[in-house]
Amino acid sequence: MRKIILLCLVAIFSMTVKAQIPVTDVANVTQSIVNSIQQIVHTSTTATNMINNCAPV
Fold first, then answer.
1. How far apart (Å, rounded) are the C-alpha atoms in residues 44 and 2?
2. Radius of gyration over alpha carbons of the chain, in Å?
3. Over the stretch 12-50, which tens digit does the pLDDT of each residue have?
4. CA distances in angstroms from 55 to 20, 26, 44, 46, 50, listed in the order given
5. Is the pTM here over 0.85, yes or no?
6. How many whole angstroms from its chain centre is CA 37?
7. Cβ-count burial of 2 within 10 angstroms (0-12 exposed, 13-18 middle, 19+ buried)?
8. What separation, in Å, do the N-terminal and C-terminal C-alpha atoms of the chain show?
9. How far is CA 32 from the centre of its chain?
């Protein structure tokens, strides 16, 4: 039993591990930023309109 466990441990630790290079899609990140900014502007405009409509005349 010890030989099997030792053999398994040797097999596991003798494997080589290769890391993948991370890929960043710059166009997608840029579009996400633009969409977020547009959403913030829209939300701010809506909030301003609500405040202006609720203000006493």
1. 68
2. 29
3. 777 776 778 888 899 999 999 999 999 999 999 999 999
4. 57, 44, 17, 14, 9
5. no
6. 17
7. exposed
8. 88
9. 11
